[in-house]
Amino acid sequence: MMSVKHQDETVFSQIRVCCVALDDRMAEDLKVLYLGERSSITDYLIIASGNSDPHLKALRAALEGALKELKLRPIGLDADPASGWLVVDAFDFMVHLFLPEKRDFYHLESLWKDADYVDVSAFLGSGNRQEAAV
């Protein structure tokens, strides 16, 4: 597991704001993966699940609010509500929000099994409900 202090503080600050927003909306199984040089597309993946279509929409709204707060304009957005999978590309990190069955089917964590997990609790602090990533 990676420690926050060993990475770019600006990107970590941005990821933290997004993770807190998702956690505040009760995102399930929130994980952050560091891809680094394993990917030419992005450095980090934020992955979380919503338990229903309305929950997924609420997570998307929370994420969009966080990005607006950060003054970050996504360079890509794939948010077809019928797909059960929303993707937001914020350049240094990408956010993938899934319905549980889509997350189980695509299982990004296994596709990036050589990625390093970032300790999510370091972003959320002790006051939030989310536990650390494994």
* Spans where pLDDT lies below 50 across 5 or more residues: 129-134
- What is the average of the pLDDT values? 85
How many H/I helical runs? 5
- Determine the structural class based on helices, strands and strand pairing: alpha+beta
Arrangement of strands in the largest sheet: 3-4-5-2-1-6
Question: What sort of overall outline do the alpha carbons produce when their principal axes are compared?
Answer: globular
Strand percentage: 15-25%
Largest sheet: 6 strands, mixed
Report the order of strands and helices. Answer: HEEHEEEHHEH
First and last CA, distance: 8 Å
Helix content: 25-40%
* Radius of gyration, in angstroms, nearest whole number: 13 Å
- The count of β-strands is 6
Task: Give a description of the structure.
There is one protein chain. This protein is 37% helix and 22% strand. Mean pLDDT is 85; it is low at 129-134. A hairpin with a 3-residue loop joins strand 4 and strand 5 (93-98). A 6-stranded mixed sheet has the order 3-4-5-2-1-6. Helix 1 (9-24) packs antiparallel against helix 2. By secondary structure, the protein is an alpha+beta fold.
